[in-house]
Amino acid sequence: MAVIINSRIKKIRRWKKKKMKKGLTMLVAAMVITGLICVIGSAAAATNIWVESNVRGVGHLTSEYEVDTEYGLANGIEMQELESGSGLVTKQKWTLEVNPIGIEYDTGAEVCLEGLIEEKEFDVEYFPITYQNHSYDQKWMEKKCVKNYDLGAVTDANFIQCEKLQKKESVVTFGNGVEMDQVWPIPANKTYVTLAAGTPSIVQTVSADVLGISHIGFAAKDPNQHHHTIAYGREETIGQFSIEKTIEIKSTCLEPQIGDWLGCP
């Protein structure tokens, strides 16, 4: 009987070690993906990046992403996104493509367009949990800020202290940068962008049912006279609300000045 018990204990220990190793591998992989968007996006404006995520479960979730398409201060397109909370994650379905592939109208050549395309569905409900003697008690938050310095526009959508949040959101923004794609083949799962190359723009749509606090804002400035704000708006809610919003800003055809002159409204 002692031999059988010892054998079972050894099997359980091996299983725990294998499970722990697998969990650590998945965690490290997630951290590497987060870093790639920051570092590669900053280093090369023509680098095409594709990220896809689909998460469901019960527990505590934290995700952080950052995009910077050009090196230096206040250049190109930047995005910061953070989500965190405890409870039920019914859906976190998310895709992001940085510097998508497009077709040049005049020549039909394949080009890499400076910009990003993001689609996201987020459905969560808050409640405190305890896992492996650790307690997690955080109401849901989801924050996003997108800056387009070529266009002179910024949008943000923040949800904090949420007990329930059901949200569907998309962001499509392009800058001035275009580079011929002659190095590597186009992946089979990509679709061509149909917008004209070199036309700065930003379009953000938000559809949300929220029990908590929300803030959605935008600002459009003259890229050549950045002290001049062409348009500005913000909307905040506290309580239970249903929200439908679309923000669309197109190019002013002006060259931007240097300086960190865009801030999240």
Descriptive report:
The protein has 265 residues and is α+β, with helices and mostly antiparallel strands. It has one domain. 16% of the residues lie in helices and 58% in strands. The strands form 2 sheets. Strands 1, 2, 3, 4, 7, 8, 9 and 10 form an 8-stranded antiparallel β-sheet that branches. A two-stranded antiparallel sheet has the order 5-6. It is globular. Mean pLDDT is 77; it is low at 1-45 and 254-261.
Percentage of residues in helical conformation: 10-25%
Number of strands: 10
Residue windows where pLDDT falls under 50 for at least 5 positions: 1-45, 254-261
Biggest β-sheet strands, sense, barrel? 8 strands, antiparallel
Q: What integer is the average pLDDT?
A: 77
Question: Could you tell me how far the N terminus lies from the C terminus, measured between alpha carbons in angstroms?
Answer: 69 Å
Q: Strand-and-helix sequence, N→C?
A: HEEEEEEEEEE
Question: What is the element layout, followed by pairings?
Answer:
Elements: H1 2-43, E1 49-68, E2 77-98, E3 101-103, E4 110-126, E5 129-131, E6 134-136, E7 140-148, E8 153-180, E9 201-222, E10 225-250
Antiparallel strand pairs: 1-2, 2-4, 2-7, 3-4, 4-8, 5-6, 7-8, 8-9, 9-10
